[in-house]
Structures are given as C-alpha cells and as structure tokens.
UniProtKB/TrEMBL annotation:
Domain of life: Bacteria
Keywords: Signal
Signal peptide, first to last residue: 1-23
Official protein name in the record: Lipoprotein
Length: 363
C-alpha cells in the first residue's frame, strides 16, 4: 500500500515539475516580444531631406559670326531674353572650365548651355585649348589623358545638364561620350545635344530645330540645281514632303516649316616632304591621278573614308614646292534644312524641349 502511495506521489511530483517548465515556456515569448518592441522604439530615426539649390542657367557663346551668318548673335539675344547669364569670349573648353571653377558660388550648376558650331566632318568650331585644335573626339580625349584640360573642381552634380546647341551633334556618339567624360566633377552630369540642327533667330521662331539633308559637289563646279535636286531625291527616297528644287533655291524659311538650304565647304590638305625619302615624288597631273594615288595609299584612303563623301565630290589640286608635294581637296556641301513642325493644330515649330528624347540625345 505504501509503495502505491510513493508511486502516486512521485507521479504528482513529476507532473508539477513539468507544469513549471511549461509555465516557463509560455512566459519566454512574451518576454522576447517586449525586448523587440523596446529595440524598435529606441532605433526610430527622423529623415530630413536636404534641399539642393541650383544657380541661374549660364550660357557660353563660343564663336563669332561670319558676315553671312548670325548664329551666335541670335543665340545670344535668345538667352538674354530668357534672363540667363551669358558669357562671351569663351572660345575653348579650357576657358569654359576655368570660368566654371572661378565663378562657383556655392550653388550647384543646374544648366550649362554651350552654343557652338559643328558639322559631322570637321568637328566643332569650339577649341579644345586656347588657340589649340578644334574639339573632336581625338583632340578632347588627348587633352583629358594628358591633363592639359582643367578639371571641374566643384559645382557639378548628377542633376547638372550640359546642353550643347549645335548642328547634329547628338548623332556623334563618340564625341558625346568624350564630352561627358570631360565634364565629370564630383559627380557625373548629363550631356545633352540634338541630332537635329539648332536654329536661332528665325523669322517665325527665335529658336527651333530642323532636320538636315546633304548633297555634295566639287568646290566651284556645281552641276546645277536641277541635277542636284534629282541626286538628293535619289539619296533620300523616304522623304516625300520636300520639293528639292524649291528647297535648294531657298535661302531662308518663307513660311513656318518651309525647307531651305545652307551652304558651306570642307577643305582637305596634305603635305609630303621628299627631302630625305628614297621614294620618288609622284607626278599628279590630273584630278583623276590624284584620286587614284589616294586610293592606293592605305592611310590616305582610311582618312577619306571617315568623311563618307566620295572622292569625286572634291575638287583636287596638287602643287610642288621644292621637295614638298602639296595636295588640296575641297567640297561644297549643300544642307537642306526641314524645320520640325507640330503635326496638328496651328502651323507651329516644335518646341526645343531638352526633356524630349525624340529631339535630344542624352549621355
């Protein structure tokens, strides 16, 4: 009988002990939850958004007009009317960078506008260094690599826009990339340019964009507007809205959207010194002989391929001075400009909106 009582007592003891462990297990989660709640309460922080201040847009007028053009003058007037800060007499990237460093006032540069001529064959009218080479991918990359181009110390952020107002610069992908590398400061800015031609001082709009079309002929040897209109029509068969003959005879926009033509020339010049050469100086007596000689020389042939203009479109001449052979070529470029107009509503130019990726390329 006593054994039975002992057994019952032992079982009751075990049950009580197990009950204590169960009770402890029930309390543990509650205790942990309290600690987590305390940690959350203690680690709460208040985020304060820092306000960024940008200074008024600054515009660099980087050239002087010829007697036949008013590109820079009209652009200057346009930006003055917008009450932007206009900087004259900055004709090189070096001068632009020096100005930006010197005039930084503690507020970040928001918009940096650069008005500069450009064509797809010769690069920009803007110099790389003062009295140095014009800005091309090669000249600018060299200046960056050698450290001869000043670096931007302060004022450039990821919100900075460097906007080039030029002719079809947005299509020059390599130059756009190099320009972006040049403008990198503490942060990387946005470099913006249009694949269209920037036009200032129009009769119907003070600033608009136009699509360019090109046709070529040897300098001072025009075949005539009829033949040129047929040639450019064959070159751009997808363009059905332009009367090419009329456009080649127009020098300005007669009404909103009216195509018209600009003219410029591209020169090529090489000098070869045969003073200490074992090679005999060639006798190039005709343009055909010069073109044959260029095609047979790998370096000259590659150089001309970059222009993407047929050799026969250049007027070629060669002269000899002592032991030097001088070869010159020159081509006339007729650029038909078709202003971009709104496809609906009143006849108006499309607004040059730099946020519109159909109008501007961004790097």
């Amino acid at each position: 009988m006593r054994k039975g009582i002992v057994k019952v007592s032992a079982v009751m003891g075990l049950l009580l002990l197990a009950g204590q462990f169960v009770s402890c297990d029930k309390k543990a989660p509650v205790k942990t939850n309290e600690v987590i709640a305390d940690n959350i309460e203690n680690t709460e922080t208040t985020t304060v958004k820092e306000e960024i201040f940008y200074r008024k847009p600054v515009v660099f007028i980087t050239g002087i007009d010829s007697s036949e053009k008013n590109f820079y003058k009209s652009a200057r007037s346009y930006f003055i009317d917008k009450q932007f800060e206009v900087v004259d007499h900055a004709y090189s990237m070096q001068e632009i960078f020096n100005w930006l460093n010197k005039n930084y006032d503690g507020n970040l540069y928001g918009e940096i506008h650069i008005v500069a001529s450009h064509n797809p064959w010769e690069g920009m009218g803007l110099e790389t260094l003062v009295k140095g080479d014009k800005v091309t991918t090669e000249s600018l990359r060299k200046a960056i690599t050698l450290g001869t181009l000043p670096s931007l110390k302060e004022g450039i952020s990821k919100g900075t826009k460097v906007i080039f107002h030029s002719e079809a610069l947005g299509d020059n992908v390599e130059l756009m990339k190099t320009l972006k590398d040049a403008f990198v400061g503490d942060e990387v800015p946005n470099v913006i340019a249009s694949p269209y031609v920037a036009v200032f001082g129009g009769e119907f709009s003070s600033h608009y964009l136009a699509k360019p079309y090109y046709v070529f002929f040897p300098y001072s040897q025009s075949p005539g507007k009829v033949d040129l209109s047929k040639e450019i029509a064959r070159k751009y068969p997808e363009e059905k809205d332009i009367d090419w003959y009329d456009a080649l005879n127009n020098v300005k926009e007669r009404y909103v959207g009216d195509p018209y033509t600009n003219r410029f020339s591209i020169p090529v010049k090489w000098e070869f010194d045969y003073t200490n050469s074992d090679d005999e100086m060639p006798k190039l007596k005709s343009p055909e002989a010069i073109m044959d000689w260029i095609e047979q020389d790998e370096k000259l042939s590659q150089a001309m391929k970059k222009y993407n203009i047929p050799l026969e479109k250049f007027r070629w001449r060669s002269t000899v001075k002592g032991n030097k052979l001088i070869i010159k070529g020159k081509v006339t470029v007729l650029c038909v400009l078709k202003p971009l107009i709104k496809p609906y509503g009143d006849l108006q130019h499309v607004e040059p909106d730099t946020e519109n990726l159909r109008l501007y390329a961004m790097k």
